[in-house]
Amino acid sequence: MRCMLAACAALALLAGAAAAAERTVTLKVENMSCASCPYIVGRALEGVPGVKSAEVSCERKTAVVTYDDVETPLQALVAATAAYGFPSAPMD
Questions:
Q1: pLDDT > 90: what percent of the chain?
Q2: Cβ 25 vs Cβ 65: under 8 Å
Q3: DSSP alpha helices (H): ranges in the chain?
Q4: Rounded to 5 degrees, what are φ and ψ at 65?
Q5: What distance in Å separates the CA atoms of residue 79 and residue 86, rounded to the nearest whole number?
Q6: Could you give the CA distance from residue 75 to residue 26 in angstroms, rounded to a whole number?
Q7: Which of 45, 51, 56, 90 could form a disulfide with 38 if both were Cys (CB 3.0 to 4.6 A apart)?
Q8: CA distances from 52 to 26, 31, 43, 69 (A)
């Protein structure tokens, strides 16, 4: 019986891990005007738990963010940039 419970628990853990999905979103980022801005925005995004990478372009005013959508809601990414003075929103 214990083995059966342990097996069920292990399967539940695996199912949860399988539900996690890596997503990539492009954010339109406002207020970037100098070479330091992408660094600041990138560090803000990379500080959010679940973010795998953030590539920021001052020229295009965008941030391409790869993240775990189970661990990280999209709103957390938007809030992270806004906290540093760079409002952002997902691009369509």
A1: 77
A2: yes
A3: 2-19, 36-46, 74-83
A4: -120, 130
A5: 9
A6: 13
A7: 56
A8: 14, 24, 12, 11
Q: Is residue 37 left, alpha or beta, with left meaning phi > 0 and alpha meaning psi from -120 to 50?
A: alpha
Note the Cα 77 to chain centre separation in Å. 6
Closest Cα partner for 76 from 52, 45, 30, 40? 45
Give the confidence band of 5 by pLDDT, cuts at 50, 70, 90: very low
The conformation of residue 33, written as its DSSP 8-state character, comes to -
Helices (H) and strands (E) in the chain, counts: 3, 4
Once rounded to an integer, what is the mean pLDDT over residues 44-72? 97
User: How many angstroms separate the CA atoms of 6 and 1, rounded?
Assistant: 9
Residue 12, phi then psi, degrees to nearest 5: -65, -40
| Residue 12 amino acid letter | A
Mean pLDDT of the chain: 87
List the structure tokens of 33: 């005007």
Q: What is the pTM of this model?
A: 0.78
